């Protein structure tokens, strides 16, 4: 916290620089938009507007403000990449991918059950395993990226 105070007194925060105003010691943006992160504020300002971001920050308890800012930045980046759907586009894509992977898994389990019931080697299973391997690694990648 002391480091932030020092930074604040020596230079304006990214928000005040962007808005071309004087940064005060009580600036609501300063702890979350450091002077060396100008693009971070520019994104949230473009999508939400500085006054809305300020209102959100004052409504959120102080201990949750950093999370709120991270969420706003994430949503702003998603909205800038996909102006129509924003975060919902990413969520829908992941849900669709998850449904596809669950479908693939159900097919693989059914084939495995058939092979086990027949109690004989299943020639097509090895090829399917290779495909499922890549699907599982995709699923693991999604799980590590989207831990909510
Ligand atoms: Zn400021």
From TrEMBL:
Name listed for the protein in its UniProt record:
LOB domain-containing protein
Q: Which residues form the LOB domain?
A: 11-112
Instruction: Indicate the family of this protein.
Output: Belongs to the LOB domain-containing protein family.
Which InterPro entries does its entry note?
A: LOB
């Amino acid at each position: 916290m002391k480091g932030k105070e020092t930074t604040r007194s020596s230079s304006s925060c990214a928000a005040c620089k962007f808005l071309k105003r004087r940064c005060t010691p009580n600036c609501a943006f300063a702890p979350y938009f450091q002077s060396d992160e100008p693009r971070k504020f520019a994104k949230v300002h473009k999508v939400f507007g500085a006054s809305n971001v300020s209102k959100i920050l004052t409504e959120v308890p102080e201990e949750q403000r950093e999370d709120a800012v991270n969420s706003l930045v994430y949503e702003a980046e998603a909205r800038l990449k996909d102006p129509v759907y924003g975060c919902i586009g990413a969520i829908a894509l992941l849900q669709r991918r998850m449904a596809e992977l669950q479908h693939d898994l159900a097919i693989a389990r059914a084939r495995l059950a058939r092979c086990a019931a027949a109690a004989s080697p299943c020639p097509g299973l090895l090829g399917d395993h290779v495909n499922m391997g890549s699907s599982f690694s995709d699923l693991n990648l999604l799980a590590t990226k989207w831990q909510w």
